[in-house]
From TrEMBL, chain A:
PANTHER family: THIAZOLE SYNTHASE. GO terms for cellular component: cytoplasm. 1-deoxy-D-xylulose 5-phosphate binds at residues 158, 184-185, 206-207. One of its GO terms (biological process) is thiamine diphosphate biosynthetic process. This is Thiazole synthase.
Automatic annotation (TrEMBL), chain B:
This is Sulfur carrier protein ThiS. Signal peptide: none annotated. It comes from the Bacteria. Gene3D superfamilies: 3.10.20.30. The gene is thiS. It comes from Phytoactinopolyspora alkaliphila.
Length: 260, 74
């Protein structure tokens, strides 16, 4: 596997982690997930409903996409810890996308509850991937308590505003001892590419694909954007400069001054 | 003695004693004794009951049972 994403010792060929929220149909979602090339995909935990046809669980199983249960909808550490344990039981994995939000309007992470829940879950043997603010200090504290990755937001969930604070994301990347996954806020392919160019190890997105006019085409676009951004990061971009710099040689030009 | 528990917010009554397995079968419309449903997790009064303990864990009247499954989410 060339240049894999490695989280907690597990290797992934794809650096695009998908979410499944917002898709109007399971069939459309399945095609989009396959087109995205993702190997790790988030699911939420909700009360069972009888009589529904097919399930996201079956869909991921038959396509060998690993399920990453989240704790979406939790406002306190204790709710998130219980939800994580239910996710572990339901999805037969000790990996969790840890979300603890402060309110249901901003959907912004509550750093105090988040770090508390992360510490508890790490001590309980979970592999914790926390959704966090784009704050380098919170990210550092999450890594310090033993999280396997940190997942700062580009912009609030579902906004599609892209990477609002690229300098903070770059600072998190520069400081981080664990993989950095940009999570939330991606609107279109260039946002995903920018996140990767900033040095993120991966991108997690859902809405940008599931609510696009053509989710399958957008999934393909995101796959390519993440690959392109990663390549650009590894290739090393040129420094920015104030003045123009000719790329054609100045020497050996013909004398074409026809006024002579 | 009858057992009445609240499952995902709705009351379910059993004529006699009931296990978590029985509750899951009833709630999911499974044939009795077939609790093999994968992708499901159960909490009784906010404590997770591991799948391996469903058959041996009794529920008591007044218990709050939550049966959750993986669903679409970001």
């Amino acid at each position: 596997m060339d240049d894999p994403l490695v989280i907690a010792g597990e290797k992934f060929a794809s650096r695009l982690i998908m979410g499944t929220g917002g898709a109007p149909s399971l069939l459309g979602l399945e095609t989009a997930l396959l087109e995205s090339g993702t190997e790790l995909t988030t699911v939420a935990l909700r009360r069972v409903q009888t009589g529904t046809e097919g399930s996201i669980w079956d869909l991921l199983q038959r396509n060998r996409i690993r399920a990453l249960p989240n704790t979406a909808g939790c406002f306190t550490a204790s709710e998130a810890v219980l939800t994580a344990k239910l996710g572990r039981e339901a999805c037969e994995t000790n990996w969790v996308k840890l979300e603890v939000v402060a309110d249901d309007i901003s959907l912004l992470p509550d750093p105090v509850e988040l770090i508390s829940a992360a510490r508890t879950l790490v001590n309980d043997g979970f592999t914790v991937l926390p959704y966090t603010n784009d704050d380098p200090i919170t990210a550092r504290k999450l890594a310090d308590v033993g999280c396997a990755a940190v997942m700062p937001l580009g912009a609030p969930i579902g906004t599609g505003l892209g990477v609002l604070n690229p300098r903070n994301i770059a600072a998190i990347v520069a400081d981080s001892s664990v993989p950095v996954i940009l999570d939330a806020g991606i609107g279109t392919a260039s946002d995903a590419a920018l996140a990767m160019e900033l040095g993120c190890d991966g991108v997690l997105l859902a809405t940008a694909v599931t609510r696009a006019a053509d989710p399958v085409r957008m999934a393909r676009s995101m796959r390519r954007a993440v690959q392109a951004g990663r390549d650009a990061y590894l290739a090393g971009r040129i420094p920015r400069r104030e003045d123009a710099l000719a790329s054609s040689p100045a020497d050996g030009r013909a004398n074409l001054d026809l006024a002579l | 003695m009858a057992t009445t528990v609240k499952v995902n917010g709705e009351e379910i009554a059993f004529d006699g004693p009931a296990s978590v397995s029985d509750v899951v079968d009833r709630a999911l419309d499974n044939p009795v004794g077939s609790s093999v449903a994968r992708g499901i997790a159960v909490a009784v009064n906010n404590d997770v009951v591991p799948r391996g303990s469903w058959r041996t864990t009794r529920v008591s009247t007044g218990d709050h049972v939550e049966i959750l499954t993986a669903t679409q989410g970001g």
